[in-house]
Structure prediction request, 426 residues.
Amino acid sequence: MTTVYGIQLSPFARKVILALEAKGVEFEINPVTPMNKPEGFENISPLKKIPALQDDLVTLADSTVICEYLEERYPQNPLYPEDLVARARARWFEEFSDTSVLAVAGPLFFERVVKKVMLKQETDEARVSQIIEEEMPKVYGYLEQELDEAGFIAGEAVSVADLALGSNLINAMYAGVDVDSTRWPKLAAYKNRLFSTELFANRLASDKAMMSA
Amino acid sequence: MTTVYGIQLSPFARKVILALEAKGVEFEINPVTPMNKPEGFENISPLKKIPALQDDLVTLADSTVICEYLEERYPQNPLYPEDLVARARARWFEEFSDTSVLAVAGPLFFERVVKKVMLKQETDEARVSQIIEEEMPKVYGYLEQELDEAGFIAGEAVSVADLALGSNLINAMYAGVDVDSTRWPKLAAYKNRLFSTELFANRLASDKAMMSA
Prediction:
């Protein structure tokens, strides 16, 4: 059995879960959270980061490394375009999402969801405003400039870049910060296209079921 | 022509330079430093990070993304093992080097080389001691446990993981912090093996020539 260590609301765990679902690989989730790591977790994830993945061949940390592994082990429904340049583009936007988009969506999700719902602390709305006004326009502006009117980040098919970007856009949405379609029309339309795919629609439904439980 | 934007003393630029040299790809260096970025550099590297790589097909940032691209474009002298599990291991140790080993070697190099030689500032030796005593043992201890008596990180051949780890070990060495062979004998022997390869020996000679100029 393939096990994902992590929680489905984490953007990096979600990226790995989406990759497994895209490829139709059966898996189970061991719900390790950043605040609740089992004894000896460093034997599974040396830096104690989530997600980690374990199957009959590997014990592996880092969502990017895991996705490359899954692509090579399960070539069906490829998440990396065939074309050399498009593959490089997919990997670049995966990295951009995992760092720069995370730097927007992560603190928004932390302030509005983790602190409020899980830690029972006050949201720092000044911090939220600062991210929305200062950080978000740079990141979303770059994406707006790079996206096309149709398709996904690195071509017609959903790639690993879309899993990474979409995972972060979901968490921004859960923090009540949706993509402003007057300011970033291509990004907003992209988000709607992505979230309408069966892959993302099912994931959003799973989140909804979990959160209402 | 292939152009690397960056300076050869940066560990991430060095990783890309080593990859190009391993594959025998001709290139030139445009010596962009973190402190000296040309006007419009964001058109080459969207986050203004170095290194970036430009050739007839792509303009690409992020050393990990660049190395994957170089491997696919120039399959000769592969830097990723053929075996699925070894490939995952190579990518994991590339990531570990780029983050955890950098978190040791980066500040050491900054304190002892960048500040002293380039910025004409005092080295903070308390910070250096803290890194050597607290951070380094965790990182080097993990590597010691993972390395074999022979070969390289992910097999008999030098892989992208060795480029990333070696690049950081070089900068720690330039900061006067070598691997203690009584404490981490396998890591020290690995370092000697790696630095004795033609690839690394030539790179070290190039640094030496540059620094004495």
Summary: The radius of gyration of chain B is 17 Å. Chain B has a mean pLDDT of 96. Chain B touches chain A at residues 46-47, 57-58, 60-62, 64-65, 68-69, 72-73, 84-85, 87-88, 91-92, 95-96, 99-100, 142 (CB under 8 Å). Residues 79 and 159 of chain B are 4 Å apart (CA to CA).
